[in-house]
Amino acid sequence: MLSKELASKSVEELAPLIENKSVSPVEVTRAVLDQAQATQEQVNSYMEIYREDALEEAEKAETEINNGIYRGMYHGIPMAIKDIIYMKDKVTTMSSKIHKDFVSDYDATVVSKLKEAGVVFTGKLSLHEYAWGITNNNPHYGAVRNPWNLDKIPGGSSGGSGAAIAADATVASLGTDTAGSIRIPSSACGTVGLKQTFGRVSKHGVYPLAWTLDHVGPMTKTVKDAAGLLQIIAGFDKNDPTTVDVPVDNYMEQITGDVKDLVIGVNEDYFFNRVDPGIEQLVRDGIQKLVDQGAKVQEVKIPALQYAEWAELVTSLSEASTIHHSDLQTRPQDFGNDIRMLFELGELPSAVDYLQAQQVRRQLKQDFQKAFEQVDVLIAPTLPVLPNDIGSDFADLNGEKVDLIDNIIRFMGPENLTGLPALSVPCGFSEGLPVGMQIIGPAFKEGRILNAGYAFEKSNPMQGKRPEILEKI
């Protein structure tokens, strides 16, 4: 099989080939490493490529599989992760200047679990500095470019992960999500991204942005790939006091593709308010495709959403600025200008503001809970605007220039505030750029949103299209 063809496959396609020994982990790893190196100059998704280590790990995986030891779907799968997740004896930069030489002496819990599953690590991927932004235009390491259009942002903060998957420079990845940082690049790069329930996956060994909003989750080519990855990383961890000791479902078993009688909630007032018309049309068409398969639609009201943006902003700014407070005092010049300004802003909210935001958060949780008494999932656009040009602070919304950050996180924040699981799946193209549809579910019902995402994915919304640069490399 041609190297490029191997690199373009999803985990669900590669796993059976690796298991029955039609292809070897070494072949797949070499193909992905070659693709990573071939796209690096144009896309700039990697912080570091571990070529030698990866080929060594792939050989180990191959030997195990040849000896009848097969660890499951991700065994021998080459994968790079966001450079905010610690790996023992490897540099983890957070794509910052301050931590450019930071080496952890332990693995993050998610890394330990991936190692146990036989994953082959190909390297670390770029992010918006300290995960505090949505463009991945990094002042220290350069901009990551969207493979669908190299002039456009890939989204952030896990922009390196989204771009690398779209460019076939990794088969899958782990990102983090505090105000959309998994789902934004997944939408912008035409990939699948899952922010699971808060407490479902350990954050031990992941550098924090905002303690009560951070999540670690799968970024993949397909919904089943995301389910398989969640299966590996989910579960209680005594090293992370925010994890919840709830049994882990068998997510693969829950993906049947049957959505007959699924009740889809649509919230018009917030989630379909001020949306790019091309995006809105694709998402409404996506809902219709599920209705065609037997789902029903019901409108729901979530009154506290009107205060969600304020509550998300106060919470994330306050927590992030606390984490970086001492560096902000002693070496402010070492932060990129954009995030330094945000950290300075984060020193402004008072304790009263912060605690009021937590009251809004409580109300929001209750309102979502009420909505989920009537419906099974909620569906909304992932982003209300298309990815904008690298270097611009504005997005186009119905012919109007609007603030990029405010708009890109508008539909993201409520799920971080409530901790509810949310999945972004590609639903087509507008102006040549991918668009994501967001499926939100009740706490710990990842299987339900993954199944709805899978049922939609089967309608082939991307029509097999691939970024043009892949044809040229």
Automatic annotation (TrEMBL):
InterPro entries: Amidase, Amidase_CS, Amidase_dom, AS_sf. It holds the Pfam family Amidase. Signal peptide: none annotated. Residues 27-450 form the Amidase domain. Gene3D superfamilies: Amidase signature (AS) domain. It comes from the Bacteria. Belongs to the amidase family. This is Amidase. It comes from Lentibacillus salinarum.
